[in-house]
C-alpha cells in the first residue's frame, strides 16, 4: 500500500495569536534530498521519513526510530539541521500546521494544510492571514531549506 501526503503550503507574514495553540518542537536533518530521506525528532518521538518527488501530492513513508538511532543518523546529515516550532491551529475540518523556524532561516513562517484528497485540496479557501501560496515552489521544501 502506498502512502500519500496531499498538502498546500503558504508563507505567513503575520501569524494570528498562537498563545492558546498546542505545538511541537521539531528538529530534522536530511540524509539525502533526492529522493528525500529525513530523520526527525518531534518532541520525544523519532522518525525516519522517505518522500518521493512532488509538490502538492507526494508519496511518503514514516518509520519509527529510537533516540539513539536518530542521534546516530542526524550526524550523517547532508546539509544544515532544521529547528522549528510547529503550532497546530484548528480551522474548520482541517488543522493548520504553522512552522516558525529557528534554523536555518530564523523568523521564516510557513503554514501547511493536509487534505484527504486532491479535490478537497483544490477546493480549499485559505484564511485571510495566509500569505503567498508556495505549494509549487521547491525552494520552500524543508529539504531545500536545509541547504541554505
Which structural class best describes the helix and strand composition?
mainly beta
SS summary, helix count: 3
Rounded average pLDDT = 95
> Could you estimate the helical fraction of the residues in percent?
10-25%
Radius of gyration over alpha carbons? 15 Å
> In terms of per-residue confidence, which ranges show pLDDT below 50 for 5 or more consecutive residues?
none
Counting DSSP E segments of at least 2 residues, the number of strands comes to 8
Descriptive account of the structure:
Helix content is about 10%, strand content about 45%. It has three helices and eight strands, in the order βββββαβββαα. The protein has helices at about 65-75, 120-125, 140-145, and strands at about 5-10, 20-35, 35-40, 45-50, 55-65, 80-90, 95-105, 110-115. An eight-stranded antiparallel β-barrel has the order 1-5-4-3-2-6-7-8. A hairpin with a 2-residue loop joins β2 and β3 (about 35-40). The model has no long low-confidence stretch (mean pLDDT about 95).
Give the helices and strands, then pairings:
Elements: E1 4-11, E2 22-33, E3 36-42, E4 45-51, E5 57-65, H1 67-74, E6 82-91, E7 94-103, E8 109-114, H2 118-123, H3 142-145
Antiparallel strand pairs: 1-5, 1-8, 2-3, 2-6, 3-4, 4-5, 6-7, 7-8
Amino acid at each position: 500500500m502506498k502512502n500519500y501526503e496531499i498538502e498546500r503550503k503558504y508563507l505567513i507574514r503575520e501569524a494570528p495569536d498562537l498563545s492558546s495553540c498546542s505545538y511541537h518542537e521539531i528538529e530534522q536533518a536530511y540524509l539525502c534530498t533526492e529522493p528525500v530521506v529525513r530523520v526527525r525528532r518531534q518532541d520525544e518521538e523519532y522518525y525516519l521519513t522517505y518522500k518521493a518527488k512532488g509538490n502538492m501530492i507526494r508519496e511518503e513513508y514514516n518509520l519509527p526510530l529510537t533516540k539513539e538511532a536518530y542521534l546516530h543518523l542526524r550526524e550523517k546529515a547532508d546539509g544544515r539541521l532544521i529547528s522549528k516550532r510547529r503550532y497546530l491551529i484548528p480551522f474548520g475540518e482541517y488543522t493548520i500546521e504553522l512552522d516558525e523556524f529557528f534554523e536555518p532561516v530564523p523568523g521564516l513562517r510557513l503554514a501547511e494544510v493536509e487534505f484527504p484528497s486532491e479535490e478537497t485540496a483544490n477546493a480549499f479557501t485559505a484564511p485571510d492571514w495566509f500569505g503567498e501560496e508556495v505549494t509549487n515552489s521547491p525552494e520552500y521544501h524543508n529539504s531545500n531549506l536545509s541547504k541554505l
